[in-house]
Amino acid sequence: MAQEQLALLGGEKSVESDSDIFAWPIVTEQHEQAVLDVVRARKMSGIEITKEFEKRYARMLGRKYGLAYNNGTAAILGALYALGVGPGDEVICPSITYWASVAQAYTLSATPVFADIDPDTLCIDPRDIEHRITPRTRAIVVVHYASMPAEMDAIMKIARAHNLKVLEDASHAHGALYKGQQVGTFGEAAAFSLMTGKALAIGEAGILFTDDRAVYERAILFGHYIRHDEITLDELKPFVGLPSGAAKHRMHQLSSAFGLVQLELYPKQMAEIDKAMNYFCDLLEDTAGIRPMRPAKDTNTTKGGWYYPHFKYLTEELGGLSLSRFCQAVGAEGSICNPGCNKPLHRHPLFTEQDVYGHGRPTRIAFLDDSAKIEQYAQPLPVAESIVRRVFEVPWFKHHEPEAIEEHANAYRKVIENYQSLLPGDTEKEADTGGYSSFFTSSKNT
Asked: What is the secondary structure of 229-268 as a DSSP string?
């Protein structure tokens, strides 16, 4: 392919096939019938189908209790409350994640504390956790980011040493394994988003898992008032009847009906996604300038459904070509190559200056004593601040179709083998990459 004219500069595109390889979720007649049955029975706002979904999912994951939510954001809020997070508490979370991993701390009058990430996993770096623990620290939110499992052995050791609760945000990593154990089974609680774009997609929905009956019942009390008949703990019984968090978190039963079907189909779908994505990575494993981001082989650690897959970008191997220019060229070839990832939350004004509720000072420190200064909570995180220029999103294949996958791999190879032709027009060296929303990436992936 050397010296071939790039599509960005007027040449022919590399990707010509028209395939449903990115269509997601895969909707079957079984899904359609399940949803139609709920509509015809007028049970959209019931809970009996949802309870069955919770039981089956919990059994599949290996946890005692599942509690369904209207979205993953609400599931995380319910989990934080259930774990006892409250006024004046601090919650440690990685800076590279979607805002809904920790912004709900404000609702509970708590303070997010951001930690740096490991550049090889994009997950919270255990080495940057311990020195951020204070007497106010209540919990650690571990995000299995972009379907890569975090280093749970080290994180759980730290949590146990300091008597901290661990909440796993596994919204990116349905079915992923860490050393043979499913993510979402390590912490005192776990929360998953189940919205349409996720790997296990059932609609706009979420779910909380725990093995602790007290956590389960506190979550019910907070936002599932219609299920207060499940509350058995004496200390909670006086408050049944009304939602303690003034929230209505019930999952719509069209989603839970769709979800029951999806639970049956997902293991096979996940296996095909894993096969397709590893094939794509294998094709590009030894290519200059880029490196697949996936668990090492023979570790029994996996990426599950590979939601939001990324590669590393090594600009020094491509003559200093900017990531933005590289991604433009690959995109022009007809493939998917989105620069960056989520921007670091610790730099967003919501966490540095905004007074959300009118306290007269930034909400980040509003629930602490008057001696607290925002500068204490606005420390630099060098990896998080630079990572958006060092990684990029790649195609998320839902089917193992070798010829189609090879076309996309060839698009990357073509750009890499002809990168020098991109250098003269490279004006993107300081371009802003990534975003704060989950929807800054190509619609082809969802």
From this structure: GG---TTTGGGTTS-TTS---PPPHHHHHHHHHHHHHHHH
Instruction: Give per-residue pLDDT as tens, 88-131.
Output: 999 999 999 999 999 999 999 999 999 999 999 999 999 999 99
Residue type, 189: A
Catalytic site residue from 165, 198, 303, 414: 198
CA distances from residue 28 to 49, 216, 379, 401 in whole angstroms, order as listed:
19, 33, 49, 19
Average pLDDT over residues 185-210: 97
64 is catalytic: no
29-260, CATH topology level: Aspartate Aminotransferase; domain 2 (3.40.640)
Q: 313: which 2 tokens?
A: 């970008």
- Among candidate residues 265, 226, 436, the one with its CA nearest the CA of residue 349: 436
Concatenated DSSP letters of 261-296:
HHHHHHHHHHHHHHHHHHHHHHHHTT-TTEEE--PP
Per-residue CA distances from 2 to 6, 272, 322, 329, 421 (Å): 10, 32, 20, 15, 11
Q: Which two tokens stand for residue 185?
A: 């089974």
142, burial (CB in 10 Å: exposed 0-12, middle 13-18, buried 19+) = buried
> What single letter denotes the amino acid at residue 217?
E
Helix (H, G, I), strand (E, B) or coil at 96: coil
> At 169, which helix (H) or strand (E)?
strand 165-169
Q: Taking the domains of the chain in order of start, what are their residue ranges?
A: 7-25+265-342+387-445, 29-260
Convert the pLDDT of each residue in 357-379 to its tens digit. Answer: 999 999 999 999 999 999 999 99
CATH tag, 7-25+265-342+387-445: 3.90.1150.10
Gap between the Cα atoms of 175 and 57, Å rounded? 11
For residue 202, is it left (φ>0), alpha (ψ between -120 and 50) or beta? alpha
In DSSP terms, which residues pair with 91 in a beta bridge? 112, 139
φ and ψ at residue 435, rounded to 5 degrees: -170, 175
Cα(77)–Cα(219) distance, rounded to whole angstroms? 9
How many angstroms separate the CA atoms of 114 and 90, rounded? 10
At 161, the amino acid letter reads A
Rounded to whole angstroms, the Cα distance separating 411 from 329 reads 9
Q: Distance between alpha carbon 350 and the CA centroid of its chain, in Å?
A: 20
Exposure on the CB side of residue 37, measured as CA atoms within 13 A: 13
